[in-house]
Amino acid sequence: MRASALSAGVVVTGAPIVSAASPLRVQVLAYEGAEDLDYVGPYDVLSRAADKGGAIRTTLVSPYRPTTITTAKGIRVEVPRGWSPQDADVLVVPGGGMHNQPGSGLHRLIADKGFMRRLADAKPVKVGVCTGVMALSAAGITRGRPATTHTAAKPYLAEQGATVINARVVDDGDLVTCAGVTSGIDGAIWLIERFLGAELATDVETVLEYERRGTVWRD
């Protein structure tokens, strides 16, 4: 993680310094069985910020190495890079079914102990989308912290020690969590606002013809 920065007029502790010479490096995880909109939504939003001139570079990554995955909806997707925590300021983790549903993409991801150890130790800001928050929970990242997830998973998130907040996006510094599916779009727009400024976030909303719902919960 690069040093703390002044972002959109607000000091963000532990945030990377973002400039044209040093763009925000976001890696969006795509794994076998990942829920399509959970990762495509944030990837599209963040990529549009770059199209509008924002200092951001967004990359689709797999847990380990370049590969081809089959998403939850059966779409074959080429993932060009493996996840490299040292090359990321932000990691977006999408859902993939329920964590306790044998055979779901998320269930298989959490069962990968090697990946989960890497996730627990990684320094980038971690963003969980939908049930992807349960992967962060399984890694011990949400314990004792405010977080949200898909409505169906909230009881399990609470059981695992998080303070569940009923909001679409919850920002707790180096942990940002989003509720169900489309909340990842809201979360990605919030990341643009937080790191690159409200004007760019509004521009991206305009291009998408999308309006965020509710407010971002922050302590």
Automatic annotation (TrEMBL):
Residues 25-186 form the DJ-1/PfpI domain. Gene3D superfamilies: 3.40.50.880. GO terms for biological process: regulation of DNA-templated transcription. InterPro entries: Class_I_gatase-like, DJ-1/PfpI, INH-QAR. It holds the Pfam family DJ-1_PfpI. This is AraC family transcriptional regulator.
